[in-house]
Amino acid sequence: MYDMKALYEAESVENAVALRLEHPEAQIIAGGSDVLVQMREGKRAGKELISIYGLDELRGVSIDEEENIRIGSLSSFSHITRDPIIQKYINVLGEAVDMVGGPQIRNIGTIGGNTCNGVTSADSASTLHAWEAIVELTGKDGIRRLPIKDFYIKAGQVDIRVEDGEIQTAILIPKASYENCYGYYIKYAMRNAMDIATLGCSVNVRLSPDKQTIERARIAYGVAGPVPMRCPSAEAAAKDKPLTLTTAEEFSLAVLNDIRARDSWRASKAFREHIAVEMAKRCLIESIKRAGGVIK
User: Hey, what's the torsion of the CAs at 5, 11, 17, 23, to 10 degrees?
Assistant: First the structure.
């Protein structure tokens, strides 16, 4: 049994906001793959819960009137991986979330829960940062949107204004961030499945029309610091550069200017820095190949 004080089931987004305003100490629960485990461990014992799992309006992937790719916060990892819009425009996100846990977790775990946890090891986090995602929050004053890099405040903490009754309702990928872009994600872990990332690296590129130079590169890491992070030094090192191994090597070495790896029981700082360089190189080369380029 779970030690909970009360469970409230939201009937709509507006009702969820009202419940949160009425019960500010309550924990929002979606799939429950993290919250229920934490309750069993005693970390959230005696909590009130507000379930938003029944809100189908927060499920699904679409392209909105501004041509953003809109991912409802209750979209499961399995749904995202199989969705035709994701497969067409940002297949790397589907590949990344397909590395979360096992099939049961991917069927119930949600993209909103994965990001709202605020953990740097979330498999969706580095790819969403590399694709410049925007987080949509809905509260008593309407909708607030902010770049995902500003959503993560510190380890385990994100910018959700409980005092305004906010809940996360969607994640948006702007057209400027996905159009003609191709990416690749590598998760380094001790096991091939059911393991938390020791380091995650996501890269995407847009090539010049003649596919001879890198018009734009984006790279982000998980577990390279307390929150997921972009590497502006590496991105600058690749901009307008030819598709060569030298470019890939300069790009990968530049990540050391930005990441903040640390020692932990999973890996040492030195090891994380070593694999960060290698992962960046491999991700860039594979992204270029997916974009139709040839490394010379």
Answer: -20
